[in-house]
Amino acid sequence: MGPLNKKESKKELIYFKVDAGRYFDKKDFLSWINKRVTKTISYFDMFEYNSRILIAVNGDVRSVVLLYLLSKIEKKFPRAKMAIAYIDEGISGYSDRKLSIVKKLATKFDLPLHVVRFKDSFGFTVDTLANHYENVCEICKILKRWLLNDLAYKIGYDRIALGRTLEDVAFEILMYFVRNKLNALLIYPFTPERLHKKLVPIVKPLMFLKKKEIILFAHLQNLPFSTSICPYFLKSMEKQILQEMYRLEEKYPGMLFGLLNFAQSFFVNTKEKPILRECKICGYPSSDTLCEAHQLLEHIRTLMQY
Ligand SMILES: [Zn+2]
What we know:
By secondary structure, the chain is an alpha/beta fold. The chain has helices at 6-10, 26-43, 61-74, 95-108, 118-122, 126-130, 137-154, 166-178, 182-186, 211-220, 231-234, 237-251, 255-269, 292-304, and strands at residues 13-17, 22-25, 52-56, 81-88, 113-117, 159-161, 202-203, 277-278, 285-286.
């Protein structure tokens, strides 16, 4: 940590941001988070004055902070509409517990809540999937994204807001590269372009904040959040890679910002256009005859024989 200047030494300091070389007291920190998120939203033109925003909330700290900040920011835009989406994966001892927190949040923030269940939509739960697949995290993520898009499209919302932190977004970008999924990267640029009528743009207003900053903010604002972790995530490859990213960012601050900036200049400079064929089952954009979710669902149906 750097030496304190005179002004800093008089305050009760709560956070040192290594990559900015700056100390914060409580008031500065809260206002810095607010500004950071507002700036991210305006820099990428994430919302219009009358956007209909579906916020994916699962009760974890990131989704609760996102909900809190968007509710605050959007108060200035009376024609904007917001609602909460909760995807129930059917994971016993986990999904139900989160739903009860999300219900309380919907009441606290006075927002409509839409609950979509794996069981109702696909006929199976993630618990059942886990009997057949070793790593269910990635499958669950793809199916959840499909469900969120489907819900937003059907109820006429034009943005899906996700509580993804710097580490999460860096992880996603890295995985697109590692798995050679250029099309998946291209269809979700940081700016919310409507590339296809059935593809609802995704925005990530917390993308320039670290998870530890989000947690500190939630504590300082006394926001209620769930600390339970998905049992399948605990043994996933995703967890191992994310932990490695937290460690690297601590050791070499600024590394993950570099990755995001690289992706951003890629979006701006690339001449590549996403392939937007339509899935023959759902009609949603896809690079193949079936979208990623329906390719998986076909595989799951064959494997589970239902
Ligand atoms: Zn499909």
